[in-house]
């Protein structure tokens, strides 16, 4: 699958000082639009199928664990103290526990999506390649974070951008 980007550039033709005839012609010409197609090549992993297999197995194990954790947190979030006489402290504690379980579940779901995307990259042969710069992701990083889609440098760049936008929105200041 190739991603295509189209860039449009408007260029005005400037008259040449050496060619007085060009002055008249240049004044009559409208700006010219030039369209350039930028095609991003699909990433191809430097790892062969045999080298990818341990990472695929790691991802499958992680996927199973995350599915189990998501289901367990959903059950915890659905539990309630129905039928029991509760005071306001018990209600607040129950509400807090549900919020924590739901938050954990959302985090695990996001991780599960990342793991499934990594398994898809293994399937298509692009596992281990940075989706931003196209360079190989170091194997040490993949061992620690097998669903990584960015190399360390691109991940840091992305976090800097996210941090700037978060603080610029007013969410990062002291209250």
CATH class of the largest domain: Mainly Alpha
Q: Provide the structure class.
A: mainly alpha
User: What's the alpha carbon Rg, rounded to whole Å?
Assistant: 27 Å
What is the average of the pLDDT values? 75
Order of SSEs, N→C?
EHEHHHH
Instruction: Tell how many strands the DSSP assignment holds.
Output: 2
* Large-scale geometry: extended
If classified by CATH, what would the architecture of the largest domain be? Answer: Up-down Bundle
Query: What distance separates the N and C termini?
Result: 47 Å
Give the strand order, joined by hyphens, for the main sheet: 1-2
The amount of helix comes to 55-70%
Proportion of beta-strand residues: 5-15%
Our count of domains comes out at 2
Number of helices: 5
Secondary-structure blueprint of this entry?
Blueprint lengths: L2 E9 L8 H9 L3 E9 L8 H30 L9 H37 L14 H6 L7 H17 L7
Antiparallel strand pairs: 1-2
Helix pairs in contact: 2-3
Describe this entry's structure for a reader:
- The protein is mainly alpha-helical and 175 residues long.
- The chain has 2 domains: 38 residues, no CATH class; 117 residues, DksA, coiled-coil domain (Four Helix Bundle (Hemerythrin (Met), subunit A), Up-down Bundle).
- 57% of the residues lie in helices and 10% in strands.
- The protein has 5 helices and 2 strands; from the N terminus they run βαβαααα.
- Strands 1-2 form a two-stranded antiparallel ribbon.
- Helix 2 packs antiparallel against helix 3.
- The longest helix is centred in the middle third of the chain and has 37 residues.
- The chain is extended.
- The mean pLDDT is 75.
